[in-house]
């Protein structure tokens, strides 16, 4: 049954049918052929109960926050400021790509939005300064993945909603691995560009007074991140309320820089509606599919299969990791999460693992899926911003960063406290 379902999923996706519609079609198929009850009759109630949840209101707020920051030109200012601070390292401007992606990950919550923002700003610089197109574009695609790890993260909100785990604790758990990944990207870039200086282009050193003046451009983003995350961790606001405060802060910042206008705000709201509609269609479609899978007993079938392998808990976890890596080649990341969470997470908890820790491990694997072909979304985003060259160059450029993600996954398996240290310390 699982094999037929997997083939159906890949077949429908290959026809370029929207992911949300594919999930509904698979749900109807499972209901028709495998479920003993006509579950479609409860579809209306299921759609309403899934979407009528206050936790999910945080998603459009965080999307709007990122849209305002991008469209008001704050991204360009942030990139220029970070360029002055990190371009002296081996690799030069490549480090500004990672640093800018890290900064915007701390506000946008979306990997695709982060990658698109940095790519739009950085690509003209790469062509002008003669950087290696593979490493430069690969760093942007990989840096963009930090948007779903460093809080606030839309994917962590969805994970918390589906597993009924604490979103503030998930945010805390993602902070250390997210920063560690960003530093790993910087170290790998520096090592590669030290061994092969031609990859990194020109290293530039700016006068210290210019570097200090550039910090002014970073203060608004840092303050915004501090307010959003601080109010959540202090218990002063829920993630939804903090997201609303963040939107208000972004509007104030845009106004302070003279970048706010009716046209800009209209474009930001329109972009938010499009992205939120896509996310909610996927979440609702996956909820219906998961409901039909549970009724047909497919979740128990998979759990029995994994349990029947006779493996240790660690070996079973390695099998789960391998499943996510393989599925990540073919399935869009948010869909991969919402389809598998109701099946995999109960098994993980049953084996005695912490669901908070597993959520962070899953996000690392999902990050890999964002930059692995054929459906790695960040690859297409960066290639679209390049407007020239081959897609294979972007793919090759991400290989060193995929290795860093694999090492992070191994580190989380070996040392769960990497993710659980902050949530346990601040509980």
UniProtKB/TrEMBL annotation:
The keyword Transport applies. The keyword Transport applies. It is found in: Cell inner membrane. InterPro entries: DctM, TRAP_DctM. GO terms for cellular component: plasma membrane. GO terms for molecular function: transmembrane transporter activity. The chain crosses the membrane at residues 7-30, 50-70, 135-158, 170-193, 214-236, 242-265, 277-299, 359-382, 394-422. Keywords: Cell inner membrane, Cell membrane, Membrane, Transmembrane, Transmembrane helix, Transport. Its main location: membrane. It is a multi-pass membrane protein. Residues 9-418 form the TRAP C4-dicarboxylate transport system permease DctM subunit domain. Belongs to the TRAP transporter large permease family. Part of the tripartite ATP-independent periplasmic (TRAP) transport system. The complex comprises the extracytoplasmic solute receptor protein and the two transmembrane proteins. This is TRAP transporter large permease protein.
């Amino acid at each position: 049954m699982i094999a037929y379902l997997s083939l159906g999923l890949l077949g429908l996706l290959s026809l370029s049918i929207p992911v949300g519609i594919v999930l509904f079609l698979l749900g109807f198929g499972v209901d028709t052929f495998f479920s003993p009850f006509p579950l479609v009759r409860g579809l209306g109630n299921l759609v309403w109960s899934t979407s009528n949840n206050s936790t999910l209101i945080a998603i459009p707020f965080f999307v709007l926050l990122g849209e305002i920051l991008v469209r008001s030109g704050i991204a360009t200012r942030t990139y220029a400021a970070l360029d002055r601070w990190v371009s002296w390292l081996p690799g030069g401007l490549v480090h500004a790509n990672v640093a800018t992606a890290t900064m915007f990950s701390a506000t946008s919550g979306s990997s695709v939005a982060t990658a698109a923002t940095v790519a739009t700003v950085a690509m003209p610089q790469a062509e002008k300064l003669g950087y290696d197109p593979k490493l430069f574009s690969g760093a942007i695609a990989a840096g963009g993945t930090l948007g779903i790890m460093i809080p606030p993260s839309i994917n962590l909100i969805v994970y918390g909603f589906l597993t009924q785990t604490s979103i503030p604790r998930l945010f805390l758990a993602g902070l250390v691995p997210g920063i560690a990944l960003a530093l790993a990207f910087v170290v790998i870039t520096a090592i590669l560009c030290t061994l092969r200086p031609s990859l990194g282009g020109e290293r530039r050193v700016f006068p210290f007074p210019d570097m200090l003046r550039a910090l002014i451009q970073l203060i608004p983003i840092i303050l915004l991140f501090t307010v959003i995350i601080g109010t959540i961790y202090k218990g002063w606001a829920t993630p939804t309320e903090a997201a609303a405060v963040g939107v208000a802060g972004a509007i104030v910042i845009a106004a302070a820089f003279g970048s706010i206008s009716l046209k800009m705000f209209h474009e930001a709201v329109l972009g938010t509606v499009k992205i939120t509609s896509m996310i909610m269609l996927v979440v609702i479609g996956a909820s219906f599919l998961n409901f039909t899978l549970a009724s047909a007993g497919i979740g128990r079938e998979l759990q029995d299969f994994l349990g029947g392998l006779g493996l240790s808990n660690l070996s079973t976890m390695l099998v789960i990791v391998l499943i996510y890596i393989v599925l990540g080649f073919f399935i869009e990341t948010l869909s991969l999460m919402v389809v598998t969470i109701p099946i995999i997470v109960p098994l993980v908890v049953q084996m005695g693992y912490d669901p908070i820790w597993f959520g962070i491990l899953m996000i690392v694997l999902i990050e890999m899926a964002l930059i692995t072909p054929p459906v790695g979304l960040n690859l297409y985003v960066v290639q679209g911003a390049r407007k020239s060259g081959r897609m294979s160059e972007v793919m090759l450029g991400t290989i060193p960063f995929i290795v860093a993600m694999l090492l992070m996954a191994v580190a989380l398996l070996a040392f769960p406290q990497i993710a659980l240290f902050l949530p346990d310390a601040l509980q």
